[in-house]
Design brief:
This protein is mainly α. It has one domain. The chain contains 13 helices and no strands. Helix 3 runs antiparallel to helix 5 and helix 6 packs parallel to helix 13.
Length: 321
């Protein structure tokens, strides 16, 4: 790969990472406005509230950047970058078109899961460095949530890699068959729910439960640093949606995928992002104990069952061939 090609791919990745989360954020504003009768996001700028994100950006830029006197200032300033950059790295390994990924890795599935796991460190560091008891409680809740939901997420993805016989995301897409939608359905449900919890989105947003701990790890953040945490959340939605479409929906596979593969990838990812937004609007927040029980007593056994079903299926198909 030439230096020019590396530069062009990196520039394209950065442009996509700046654009796609903003599109998801704008979509969330509109979906929530329609489903919950919110009038504000429908009027900013005129037609259908097209300028809502512009207004939000202007608001964050104008706010004062405050660092608490008792905070660990270096870590406090570093935390937003720790939350944001891992999703940029993960996005680089997701193939969007036949033969094209910014970083085509043999172990792409493992790499993306590892990178998204690092993203939670931004939340942990933010809570600890803020020198605020509510922020620290939120950070501890984030740590407990990460431990509980990382395992079912990894087990569900492991089932797909076992079925495909490869850790390469491109290889998984090539091996994917439409009947996998039924064969891998339990794992897909586990992956989707665990992804929502990993992103700390409602109904799994206990780390930022405003009625209990103000805004959790982000309580002391203002201005652009707070905006970076929001961008990281939407970036996480983009990565998880595209990863789900790659593992369970065939990624770029579709009619005329040699030309329109990238469009199929984005379309499938957008549908999953809409589903994540719908879940946020429709479900109330769980209690912390309910969250833990649901992970350990429901999702993990279901993911293990899916893994057993996949292993049996692979052995039977191997014997038949």
């Amino acid at each position: 790969m030439s230096t020019l090609e590396v530069i062009l791919r990196a520039a394209g990745l950065l442009a996509a990472f700046l654009l796609l989360p903003l599109l998801v954020g704008q979509t969330e504003h509109k979906v929530m406005a329609h489903m919950q009768g919110r009038l504000g996001p429908m009027y900013a700028g005129g037609f259908h509230g097209w300028a809502q994100l512009v207004a939000d950006g202007a608001k964050f830029v104008q706010k004062e950047d405050i660092v608490p006197a008792a905070a660990d200032k270096r870590l406090f300033r570093l935390a937003p970058a720790l939350a944001l950059i891992p999703y940029l790295v993960a996005l680089a390994a997701i193939p969007v078109h036949p033969g094209f990924a910014v970083a085509d890795l043999p172990g792409g599935a493992l790499f993306v899961l590892a990178a998204t796991s690092v993203g939670i460190l931004g939340t942990l560091v933010a809570g600890w460095a803020s020198a605020n008891k509510y922020a620290l409680i939120g950070a501890m809740r984030s740590a407990a949530q990460l431990i509980a939901y990382e395992l079912p997420l990894a087990l569900a993805a492991a089932s797909v890699t076992l079925a495909a016989g490869t850790l390469s995301l491109g290889g998984i897409i090539e091996a994917w068959e439409p009947w996998w939608l039924m064969w891998q359905l339990p794992g897909a449900l586990v992956f989707l729910v665990a992804a929502v919890a990993e992103l700390q989105r409602p109904p799994f947003d206990m780390p930022i439960a405003d009625a209990e701990i103000v805004f959790g790890p982000y309580t002391e953040y203002t201005g652009l640093r707070f905006a970076f945490f929001l961008l990281a959340e939407y970036g996480g939605i983009v990565v998880m949606s595209l990863l789900f479409s790659t593992l369970y929906l065939g990624g770029w596979r579709g009619p005329f995928d040699d030309l329109a593969g990238w469009a199929w990838t984005l379309l499938k990812g957008f549908v999953i992002a809409l589903l994540l937004i719908w879940i946020r609007v429709s479900w109330p927040r769980l209690r912390e104990d309910q969250l833990q029980r649901f992970a350990w007593l429901t999702l993990i056994p279901l993911a293990l069952l899916q893994l057993v079903i996949t292993a049996v299926g692979v052995v039977l198909m191997g014997g038949a061939s």
